[in-house]
Each structure stands twice: as structure tokens, then as C-alpha cells.
Amino acid sequence: MSKADRLREVMAAEGEAVNENTQGFNAGRYESVARLEDYEELKEEARSIKEDAIERLPELIDELRESVEANGGTLYVADDAEDANDYVRSVVDDRDAERVVKSKSMTSEEIDVNEALARDGVDVVETDLGEWVLQVADEAPSHIVAPAIHKSREDIARLFTERFDPDEPLETAEELTAFAREHLGERIEDAEVGMTGANFVTADTGTMALVTSEGNARKSVAATDTQIAVAGVEKVIPSVEDLRPFVELIGRSGTGQDITSYVSLLTPPVGTPTIDFDDDETPISTFDGDRDFHLVLIDNGRLAMREDEDLRETLYCIRCSACSNSCANFQQVGGHAFGGETYSGGIATGWETGIEGLDTAAEFNDLCTGCTRCVDACPVGIDIPWINTVVRDRINHGGEDWEFDFLVDGLTPDEETGSPSLQKRFFGNFETVAKAGSALAPLSNWLADASVSRAAMQRVLGIDARRDLPEFRRETLVDWFADRDVAIEEPRRRVVLYPDLYTNHVQVERGKAAVRVLEALGVDVVVPPAPSSGRAPLSQGMVSTARDHAERVSAALEPYVEAGRDVVVVEPSDHALFEREYERLLDEASFERLASNAYEVMEFVYGLLDNGAPADALAGGDGEEIAYHSHCQQRTLGLEPHTVAVLEELGYDVLTSDVECCGMAGSFGYKEEYYDVSVAVGDELREQFTDDAARDRTVVASGTSCLDQLDDLLERPTMHPIQLLAE
Amino acid sequence: MSATPVDSLASALSALDVPCERTTPGEFEETLAEHCRGSAVGVPLEGVDAALSGTDVTVDPTPAELDAATTGVTQASFAVADYGSVVIPTTETGTELVSLFVDRHVAVLDEADVLPGMEAAFDRFGEELRAEAGSGIVATGPSATADMGELVRGAHGPSEVRVIVLEGDDE
Ligand code: SF4
Predict the structure, then answer these.
(1) Are B144 and A214 a contacting pair at CB < 8 A?
(2) Does an H or E element contain B115, and which?
(3) Atom from ligand 1 closest to the CA of residue A324
């Protein structure tokens, strides 16, 4: 089955439930973190605890071993899945256990411990209701926090009826829960071994924190006399006090709960009496609390990730699922498409690469469009899109010699070692396409649109024929500017306007508008020729090509910055590159120089007006109603409010979109395998902008991709907000 | 008058739909009776000026009594006011069992043990857990699940929680 077909199939079967649930969680996250006064500080604290813990991991594991042993438990560090399973099996076997009750843990999914125990004839029962539903249905989790998120209440009712043939029909969520609780309750009370995960383990005391809403993990520990906890080695943190930021962040980030019902801090073996539930004579306190405890920490590739500059941050992940919930593509397809053998969502690429390998990650890695909406959502500040980009790069190169990439850096512009697909090379080298396109326009546009060439482009390059292609302009912005002769007396500021690929070749009008607006506000503008930013190759995972672009852009703009000019950028995805990704592509000084002097165009206008530039030099809105869609990367950088503020100051009535992303995201929406996902994501934007409140509003958007997508989704013309100001 | 930790606890609990009753040692038995439903079991209260001995609560029940009970009364080691959380210790008397294997959990605590927020709570956990390898559950409201299509209270654990704060008699 083609990738496009498979994605369509998953969306049809599971899309609706996933969409509703993830969006509910995501909205809950915004509300819940807004109630925290010190949200940003907590995130920083959480991140620095993780940075420190991973840095000192071997030492912390030694300390933890001492703590666990002093408490009377055993710590076993397993190299891989098989090693871990063998150890678990031996504990279960020593206990002569017939049944293991298990609470939710991704790490145990990762090692397939259920299968290993089942082969020994042990009955393993998942007690988390979501996990149990999946166990009954024989399916894999589709979300790291809510594993059965893709199943609706009706699906579950059907499943239970089929499987258990209950006396009373089960319909409501209450009935289903009560049935499961009854069924599982008996099994928990009869079990010998309780298996749990651990969200965090503190080295100083050997305390593990379990974050849950159901009481099943507590019951699994309390009702059995042998506890096994399995967790990745990365879960170790130094001290009990270090738990605090995570406890305050994890529920909010994931499901939008300020805190989950239970945060169990267990320092096993716990002293709760181990009772016989049928005993009706002996008081509970007479039972003793003898318990066996085994903590199994699993390496399975993690210690190697720790040595890997680009994958290391993955180990900071606390599995909250905020990256999945905030991801527009995940919201449509869920973890069965956007995920690997165990992990799903944005950070899954890092996890799966580290523990399973590149092949597994390759299956879904391209579903990350690099929109960055997960970056602010992640409570430990992991640059998830960067991890996806790096892994894409390694996939391009067949997983071999990817280090070599850095050696050829700068020597072979527009050339990648290894072999990214033709489609990736086409989009990655879009600068060349655009230059030729402009030089040959309008012939190129006419040719590109002809049905014969569209069919060929779909066949050879995988460009979906349903998409309108960008129309190249014969006269570029740089050409137009070179022919002008405008002098600004006593300029308020002096800027270099960066002619990004689209503004220069396609969206030339928005470039002209930017120049006119800036000049009207007393700014001296220059628009020199400059290389394209490298956004296009970076999106395709062509890191060395992107680095080459970055260096050339930096070299081209540096003289202007040194001469005291600010850099003004029209395209938000390029502005974001200067502010974020260039940190990874340039030397520190060059990055600092560019990033600290670059402004998104509306941000710059905001600053000018704020500093006394005359707003009446610009076209006023006079109450005109507009619908504004900001750009994902611009929002991640906190720049949406500037545009809105400027438009409002000029008298526009602004309604903003509230979707995470338009779904187009650069080349993503052009690719035939992702066209349907892109349109499904965009549909939410379309709905919002065609409902009663927005139907008659003028549509403005900041990003090129967003404009492309909106043009396809709506039957109204669109423009960049700067064009309103220049009219 | 600024809000005391007990005030904030009460308001956080009310947002969770958890009744928070303030009472005095003298009125404890009467207050508790109002909050017990069906047959009630409990663990002995320690270090507070109140006891279960004069109530209908079966203290130190057998496992079968626990299984049959609707209400479980235990002491909380402390509470975290701004989250509405109570901390359930694990004890040899079976606090964890009595608070978990029932449908309604009634937590009793002294007003002096209401801490303002998580920072204070984790400072206390740090000290206590390093001193002796104890355990505690930060429990916030009833157990819950959204796995069956919508939010349902009482997933494995209690579906109702009540908190009784013992305040001084001398006001
Ligand atoms: S990467 Fe960040 S947002 Fe995603 S699950 Fe991990 S901690 Fe949460």
C-alpha cells in the first residue's frame, strides 16, 4: 500500500477520535500552564535538572544502587530488551507467580515483556484501563499518555460485548469503567507480582514517582508481595526535591490537568501489609509487609544516545505527550501512523532512532514538518524539530557516514553526500528552481501548469498535481529595487531587507509593500541580492547544504550589520531560521550578530510605531474586518502579538486563527504522500475562516506556505499584512 | 484578612468537588459521622487530638471487612493547599489499603499540617524520605479515567474524597 493510501486509511479509521482527544488535551495545556505564575522558570528548572542528571548518569546510577540496596531492594541494569526480560522472568519464576498485574509503562512496551512472560505461561494483565482495552483488542498504543486515544466509547463498547458477552449491555463510559474495574479488580487481588514503570527515580533515596490518575498502579503494588519496576536509565534524577518541577509540569503539559489524581512516591519495598483478601478473621495490621522489590533500569541504546550530540536531548523527555498533542499532523493521524514500534509523536523520532534504529524512525520521520509548535509546549525545552531534522539527514545518507557531512561542509554547495531522494533534492534545492523559474517566467509558469508536466512532476518528483504551484515573477524584488531611486532624509533607522526566496521570486508584492511601508516610516532600506536562507534544504534533512546557505547568508548580510543596519525579514520561516536553527549551523559569533539584529517585518514596524514613527503615514484600517493567520514558527517565537497590535493600532478589527498550524509547512503539502494530511490539517483553518464570524473578512497571513494553503482552501484572495499597510 | 493555607486548601478542594470540612476535636465524631457512607473502616489516628474509637468506623478491619466497606477513614500526613492534595502515607496499619480499596476516602488532618504549595511539600518529602525510606501518595481528588470515552470518577480507586481538617478548640 502506498504511504498516501495508508495515511488515508488511518485517518478514516482513527482520525476523528485522535483529533478530538489530542485537541482537548492541548487546549487544557494552555489553560493549565496559564495558571502557573512561574511556568517559564519551572520549565528551566526541569530542563537543568535533566541536563545535569544525564550528564552525571553513571554516577547517579551508582548512588541509586546504594539507596535501593540499603532499602532492601535490588537494582538491575539491563543492557537490552532480552537482558531485561530474562531478569524479569527469573524474578517471576522465583516467586512461582502465575499472574503479573501491570500498570502502564512505555519501557515495558519497548521490551515486549508481556510476550516474554506469556511464553513462560504467566498470565500478564494490563490494569490501566486504556492499556487493557488494547490488550483485549490486541493493538498497539497510539499515544504515549493515552494509549487507546484512537478508540471511541462506541468502539470499546463493541469490543467488550464481542469479547466478554456481558449480562447487561454496556454503553456509557460509567458502565464500561465499572465493568473493567470489576474484572481487573479480581485479577489484581489474586496476583503475586505487581509490575510498574517509574516516571522518575531519585538517586538519593531510591524513591520512585509514579504519575497516574487511575488507582491501578497503587493497587498493583499494594496487593502483591513482589514488585518489579522497569524504567529507562534516563529516569534517574538526583534528589527528592528535584521531583517538584516535574510534578507541577507533567500533568499540565500532557492532559491539561494541574496535577493527576495520584503522584505516588514509593520507596520500595513499601511497608503496606501484604494481605489475603479473603481472610475474614485477621486484622490488616497483623499481616506483615514483607515484599520483594526489583528495579530494572534499561539501557537499550540510551547510554549511546547520551554520547550522541544530537540525540542526547531525547533523554530529557519526561513522556508528557505535549509534543504529540500540539502537533497538527499528529492530531490528524495519531500514533499508529506518526510513531514507531513503541513511541509516537514528535519526540518518537529521537526515541525510535536511539532504541530501534533509523529504519523504524524513517517510517514516520517526515510527518514532522518542523513547524516548531511543540518546542514551546515541551516542559524540558527539547528542540524536537532539530532532532527530526538530524535524523532525516541520517536517513538521507542511509545511516552511514553521517559525520562525513560535517567534513564536506562548505566545500560542496548544493551537494549532499549520500543520496536524499530526488523529491527531497528538488525541494532542498528550491533556490535553483526559483532562479530558473523567474528567468523563464511566464513561460515556466505556463509549462509548470500544463497537465502533461504536472503528471510528470507527480510521477518523478511526487509533487501532487492537485496543488497550485507558486508562480514565478519575471522581475524579482531585488531587480525592482535596483531600479529605484529613493532617498530618505535623516532616516529614523537604516535596514537591510532580506530578499528571501519567495519574496524575491514569487511574493514580490509583499516585498515591495515592505519597502514602501518602511520608507513611509522614515527608514532607509536596501535590498541587496542574497543567498536563500537554507530553510528548503533543512526541511529535507540536508543539513550540510543548509549550513552552506547559512554561512553565505551570514557573509552577505554581515557588512550591512556592521554598517549599523538592522536586518528585516519578511518570511517568518526564514526569520525563525536566523533566530533558532542558525545557532546550530553557524559559529557562535556570526549567529549572535545576525540573530540579535534581525527582526520580522511586522515586529520591526511595531517597534518603529512604538518609538514614535507616525502611524498616519500608513494606510489605516478604518474598522475593516480582517482574519489573520499567523505562522507557526512566528508564533513559537512569540511574534504574533506584534502583527496584531500593529493592525489594531491602524484601526483594523482583527480576528486571529486558533489552529496550531495551517498544514502546508513548506514542501510538505506539495508532496503527494502527505497531500491529504495537509488538507485535513488545513480544514480546521478553512472552517474557522469560513464560519459566520469570519466569512466576510479579508484574509491576511504572514507565511508563504500559509498563504499557499489558504489560497487552496478559501475562495478569497489573501495577502501579507504588510500589504494592508502599504495600500 | 489574608487567606490561610486552610482557606486555600478548601477552595482548591471545592474546585475538585471534594468537600472540605473544618471541625474541632470536640465535634470531630459528629462531623465524621456525616461523611461516612455505608460500612466504614479505618486506621487509628495518630498525633492528632481525635480518635476513631468512639465512632462507627471499624478500626483495623479484616481484609474481608475492607472488601465489603464503602468508606475508608485514614489520616493524611499533610496537605498541599494550592493543589488540594492530601498526602497518604503507607503504614503498617494499612493506610494505603484502607484509602484505596473503598469507594469513599475520608482523609483527616491537622490544620498545622496544611502546607502552602509544592515547594514546601517537596522540602518536607526530601527530609522525611532521606531520614527513613518512607512512601507517600500525593492524592488529588478521586481516581479518574478518560479511557472509556469520557471522564469517569472511580477508576480502580475511590470515586469520592472528603477531607476533614482539625482546627483548635480555642477560637
Ligand atoms: S519531548 Fe517534551 S513534549 Fe514531548 S513527550 Fe517528551 S517532554 Fe513531553
Answers:
(1) yes
(2) strand B114-115
(3) 4
Q: A261 CA to chain B: closest CA distance, Å?
A: 5
Please write the tens of the pLDDT for every residue from A186-210.
999 999 999 999 999 999 999 999 9
| CA–CA dist A272, B74 (Å, integer) | 14
Closest residue by Cα to atom 3, ligand 1, is A378
Q: B145 to chain A: nearest residue by CA?
A: A214
Residue closest via CA to ligand 1's atom 4 equals: A323
- Is B101 an 8 Å CB contact of chain A? yes
For residue A68, what is the nearest residue in chain B, using CA coordinates?
B133
Contacts of A273 in chain B (CB under 8 A): 92-94, 97
Distance from the alpha carbon of residue A330 to the mean position of ligand 1, in angstroms: 14
Q: Give the global pTM.
A: 0.93
- Quote the mean pLDDT of chain A: 91
Q: How does A482-498 read in b/e, with b if 16+ C-beta sit within 10 Å?
A: eeeeeebeeeebebbbb
H or E stretch including B80?
strand B78-80
Give one word for A411, left, alpha or beta, with left for phi > 0 and alpha for psi -120 to 50.
Answer: alpha
Residues of A in contact with B151 (CB under 8 A): 173
Q: In which residue are the cell numbers 495490621 written?
A: A285
Question: Cβ of A261 and B144 within 8 Å?
Answer: yes
Do the Cβ atoms of A272 and B94 come within 8 Å? yes
- Residue A350: which of A330, A323, A325, A373 has the closest Cα? A323
Count of CA atoms in the C-beta half-sphere (13 A) of A601: 35
Closest residue by Cα to residue A205 from A241, A247, A244: A241
Q: How far is CA A641 from CA A46, A235, A567, A568, A647, in A?
A: 27, 38, 20, 17, 10
Look at residue A699 and give its three-state secondary structure: strand
Q: Cβ(A322) to ligand 1 under 6 A?
A: yes
β-sheet bridge partners, residue A627: A655, A699
Q: What are phi and psi of A629, to 5 degrees?
A: -110, 115
Per residue in A210-248, pLDDT (tens digit) is 999 999 999 999 999 999 999 999 999 999 999 999 999
d(CA B129, CA A549): 54
Is the Cβ pair A270, B157 closer than 8 Å?
Answer: no
d(CA A694, CA A647): 16
Query: Rounded to the nearest 5 degrees, what angle is found at the Cα of B92, between the Cα atoms of B90 and B96?
Result: 35
Cell digits of residue A258:
494541574
| Other residues' Cβ atoms within 10 Å of the Cβ of residue A281 | 8
Rounded distance, CA A53 to CA A686, Å? 45
Interface of B with A in 5-34 (CB under 8 A): none
